[in-house]
Amino acid sequence: MDIINKFTFVVLIGTLFIAPALATTTTIAIDDVFVEPDENAVVAIMINNVTNVGTADINVTYNSSIVHVIDVINSDFDFIHAVDNISAGFVRIGVMDYSDYGLNGNVKLGDMILQAVGNAGESDTLDISINELKKAFANETSIPAEVDNGIFTIFDSPQTPFDLLNTTDCFRINWTWTTGLYSDFVEVRINGTWKQNCTAQYYNSTFPAHATCTISLRGYNSGLNRYSEYINQTTTIPNHAPVAIGQTVHIHNNVGSVYASSTIFNASASHDPDNDNISHEWDFGDESHGNSSLVEHTYSSYNWNGSGYEPFEVSLKVMDDFGDSSTVNMYVNVYIPGDANGDGVVDILDATITGMEWDSKCTDNWNDQSDQADLNNDCCVDILDAVIVGTNWEHEA
Ligand SMILES: [Ca+2]
Ligand SMILES: [Ca+2]
Ligand SMILES: [Ca+2]
Ligand SMILES: [Ca+2]
After folding, report:
1. HEC profile for 212-239?
2. Are 250 and 323 in contact (CB under 8 A)?
3. C-alpha 383 to ligand 4 mean position (Å)
4. Do residues 150 and 58 lie in contact, with contact meaning Cβ atoms separated by under 8 Å?
5. Is 221 exposed, middle or buried (0-12, 13-18, 19+ CB in 10 A)?
């Protein structure tokens, strides 16, 4: 055999003999235990991969300043007897099976009831020593076995997060909190659905307007693999009032009952921050009203106080589906027909303004004086306005 073949042979032989041996190694094992201070825990003592076991007698030693063994119960064997010596820090456990062939496979020697008596952060090994492990048969063959000791560790329990607060805008809720002690992270749930494990102390999320949602937070301690109690908070994103914006290019108007002069009011720039539907209520200041986004109104009266015109106060109220509203006011002037400059008489001054603004249009070169000269409010200063001045010549308010 060359070197490589020898090596292969050795590996093959080793595999044949060692691999089955590993698979059938009998082990007496205790799982690791993680508890909170003063807490009780139950951990199984297992005899794994055993064949025909009839009796076992083991000691488990422990540091009785950290953990006490309270009892050992619930054996797969027919008989169990435990002698516990807390002050000495060990428990001796004997078990026996009365059947002819004993027990096989993974067999529970017993459930050990433990009580944490030490402080958080303390840890102790639950050391197994085997006094006797035998087959059920009369010749009392010993079963070779290994031990797999358990580690008993005390952790502080995770505390519930606190100081849970929120702020909202139309489509968002932002939460902040303080993470409780002994928590590696805070689990965030929204309406019962897991969202995130947060180490930061905030969570922000978008929602539809007016949404109601419940956030639930709990701390997690990885040492214990345990969560705290939940803290919950239900929030409804509040409604926001619509914004009223009323506009008109017709600040200067003339009574239109004889010579047509209507005023266009435009509320289309009004809006609702939540994108709610909004309704409009116009009050034109002369005891007449309108209720659409774009309205046309003709004034049939004016307010002359003896020395000047009093303007009309126009108000626009917009309201959303939730009953919140806002109102904006503006003032418009209403003069007698033909009075462009608002001095209460139709004369050469009005004709002059009309001439100065001749051909001005709402879409081009429009200003306050253009509006004055546009006596019929058709958004153009032309012969029709000049005719109105002439027709009403020397009329007074
Ligand atoms: Ca709204
Ligand atoms: Ca005038
Ligand atoms: Ca006008
Ligand atoms: Ca005109």
Report:
1. EEEEEEEEEECCCCEECCCEEEEEECCC
2. no
3. 8
4. no
5. buried
pLDDT tens readout for residues 200-251: 999 999 999 999 999 999 999 998 899 999 999 999 999 999 999 999 989 9
Is residue 138 packed enough to be buried (19+ CB in 10 Å), middle (13-18) or exposed (0-12)? exposed
pTM above the 0.85 mark?
no
All domains of the chain in start order, with CATH: 25-154 (2.60.40.680), 162-236 (2.60.40.10), 247-391 (2.60.40.10)
In one letter, which amino acid is 250?
Answer: H
Q: Tens digits of per-residue pLDDT, 337-378?
A: 999 999 999 999 999 999 999 999 998 878 999 999 999 999
Alpha helices in 66-192 (DSSP H): none
Determine the distance separating the centroid of ligand 4 and the alpha carbon of 263, expressed in angstroms: 12
8 Å CB contact between 296 and 329: no
Ligand number nearest CA of 333 is 3
CA distance to 166, 209, 318, 326, per residue, from 239 (Å): 16, 8, 14, 13
β-pair partners for 176: 165, 202
Ligand 2 centroid–CA 299 distance in Å is 18
pLDDT tens-digit map of 112-144? 999 999 999 999 999 999 999 999 988 889 999
Residue pointed to by tokens 């027709």: 391
Q: Which helix (H) or strand (E) holds 388?
A: helix 383-391
Q: How many A from CA of 384 to the centre of ligand 4?
A: 6
**Phi, psi (degrees; rounded to nearest 5) at 16:** -60, -40
